[in-house]
Amino acid sequence: MNRALTCLRCRGLKLQTRAVSARTFADNKRPPIAPKPIIDIKHIRQNPELYELTCQERNYKNQATYPARILELHSEWQVLQRQGRALRERSNLLRKFLANPATSSGDDDVEDIREMGREQVQDEARKLKGELAVIEKGEAEAVAEMEALALEIPNLTSPDTPRGDEAVLLSYINDPPTAFDNSPENKVWRSHVHVGSELGLFDFAGAATASGWGWYYLVGEAAQLEQALVQYALAVATKYGWTQVSPPTMVYSHIGAACGFQPRDQHGEQQVYAIAQSKADADRGVPEMCLAGTSEISLAGMKANTTLDPEDLPMKRVAVSRCYRAEAGARGADTKGLYRVHEFTKVEMFAWTSPGEDEAQDVFEEMLDIQTEILQSLGLYCRVLSMPTADLGASATRKVDMEAWFPSRQSINSGWGELTSASTCTDYQTRRLVTRTRVDGKISFPWTCNGTALAVPRVMAALLENGWDEETGTVAIPEVLRPWMDGLERMGRVGKRRNAQEVTFKQKDGHVEEA
C-alpha cells in the first residue's frame, strides 16, 4: 500500500463518608456475572498529564479532569490506609489485653491500657471498631471511584495517529471515475435512491410504514446483491485465514461498555438500542441487554473472562451480522437512502494478538489488505485515510478509514463517504473484559484489532451510483460478485424502468452537479 503522506485538511483527615462523584459504578452498574475489569490505575497515576492530553485531543472534556481526580483520591486513600493501620494496631492491643491481661504485664505498648479499667478498655474497643468501619468504607469508596473514573478514560493514542481534526491521506484505490476527467458533457449521474427506485430495488415507503424512518426493504436483485457482497467478503477474509463466526446480535450492555461503546455519546444522543426490562427483572438484578451496533462487541465478548493459549494467537475471527444504530443522524442529504440507517448487514473482522505492537501491527495491516482487495475488486474509487485524534473512539489507539467517491455526495465532503474502518486497541478491551493470556508464564492481556470487511448498505449505494448506465438503465455488477448473482452482469432491463422522484447529476466544467 502506498504510504505517501498528504495532509487533508483532599479532603482533610476527618472520618466521613464520600458522595462518589462523576460517572461511577452506580451509573454503569456491573452485574455480578460480569468480569471485574483490571485497569492499570498505577499507570494513570504515574502519567496523569499524558492521559489528560489524550482526553483533550479526543474532545472528552469531562474525562480530561479524571486523571487529576484519581491522584487526589489516591492521596486520600493513602491517608485512610495510615489511619486504619493505626486503629487496627490499637484495636489489636486492646483485644490482646482483654483476652489475657497477665500475658501483657511486661509490654510497654499496653502500659496505658493496664491503667484503665476493664469497662474503659471495652468502651474504647467498641469506639475503635466504629471508627475503623467508617475508614474502611471510605477506603472502599475511594477505590470504587478511582476504578470508575479509570474506566471512563479513553485509550492512549498511537504516535502514528495524526493530532487534531485533520485526517492524513495514505493512498488511493483504483482510478478515478469519469467524473474526474474529461467525460462527455451529457454524462448523467444519479443517486442510489434514484437508481434503486427506478429499478424497483428499494422500498422505503413500505419500510417507513412498517418500521419508520431509517429502515428499508431490499427487493429482488438488491436482496440478491446483499448476499453476494456478504459471501464475497467472507470468501476473501477466509482466504487470509480468518475463521467464520455466526454471533448473537443481542449482548449484555456491560459487554458493549467494556468494548468502548457507551449508551450515550458526548452530546447525549442515543446511540445504542437498549432492550426494555420488566420491573420484575430489574428488581431481580437481571443484566441489561442491548442490540449490538457491530459484531465487534459480540466477538470481543466471546472470550470475556477467558485465558487464551499463547499458541492460539493471533486468533482471527470474521462474522456477518445485523447491526443496529439508534441515532442514524439528522435528516438531510447526508442521510438519504442507504447511507445512514438504523439496521444493516455488516461483515466484521476481530482479532486477539499477543501483547505488544509487533503482532498487532501485522494483523492490522492484514485487515487493511483485506479491505483494499475487496474494494479494489469491486472497482470503487477510494481513498485511504489515517484518522485524527478527534475522530477516535474510546478504545482505539489508531484508526484507518477507507472512503469511496459517491456522485450524489458532491455537496458533502467533496463526494467522499466512509465505507470501512479498521482500529487497533492495545489491551483496552481485554482489560475490561478480563481476556487474558500468558507471556513467559505470567498473566498478561492480549491486544485486539477490529475492522470492517464490508458494510452492505454503503457499498451497495456506491456500486449503484458508480455503475449506473443512463442509456441502458442498468447497473454493472462487478465480476467478483457474479458467481452469487447467477452470472448476471447488469441489474435492470431497458423498458422496465420506473419513474423516480429523485434528482440526477451531470458533469459540468469538471464538476458533478444537480441536473
Structural features:
515 residues; alpha+beta; Helix Hairpins; BirA Bifunctional Protein, domain 2; 2 domains; 3-stranded antiparallel sheet; 35% helix; 20% strand; disordered C terminus
Spell out the blueprint of helices and strands.
Blueprint: E1 6-7, H1 41-46, H2 48-57, H3 66-99, H4 111-114, H5 118-152, E2 168-173, E3 188-190, H6 192-198, E4 202-203, H7 204-210, E5 217-218, H8 221-239, E6 243-245, E7 250-252, H9 253-258, E8 273-274, H10 279-283, E9 289-291, H11 295-301, E10 306-308, E11 315-324, E12 343-353, H12 357-377, E13 382-386, E14 398-405, E15 416-424, H13 428-433, E16 435-439, E17 442-444, E18 447-455, H14 456-466, E19 468-469, E20 474-476, E21 490-491, E22 504-508, E23 511-514
Parallel strand pairs: 6-11, 10-16
Antiparallel strand pairs: 1-2, 2-13, 3-22, 4-5, 7-9, 8-9, 11-12, 12-18, 13-14, 14-15, 15-18, 16-17, 19-20, 20-21, 22-23
Helix pairs in contact: 2-3, 3-5, 6-14
Structure write-up:
The structure is a single chain. The chain has 515 residues and is α+β, with helices and mostly antiparallel strands. It folds into two domains: 41-152, Serine-tRNA synthetase, tRNA binding domain (Helix Hairpins, Orthogonal Bundle); 168-251 and 292-491, BirA Bifunctional Protein, domain 2 (2-Layer Sandwich), CATH 3.30.930. The chain is 35% helix and 20% strand. The chain is built from 14 helices and 23 strands. It has helices at residues 41-46, 48-57, 66-99, 111-114, 118-152, 192-198, 204-210, 221-239, 253-258, 279-283, 295-301, 357-377, 428-433, 456-466; strands at 6-7, 168-173, 188-190, 202-203, 217-218, 243-245, 250-252, 273-274, 289-291, 306-308, 315-324, 343-353, 382-386, 398-405, 416-424, 435-439, 442-444, 447-455, 468-469, 474-476, 490-491, 504-508, 511-514. It has a nine-stranded mixed sheet. The protein has a three-stranded antiparallel sheet with strand order 3-22-23. A three-stranded antiparallel sheet has the order 7-9-8. A hairpin with a 4-residue loop joins strand 19 and strand 20. It is elongated, with a radius of gyration of 30 Å. Residues 1-28, 263-267 and 494-515 have low confidence and may be disordered. L-serine binds at residues 294, 325, 348, 450. Its EC number is 6.1.1.11. ATP binds at residues 325-327, 341-344, 418-421.
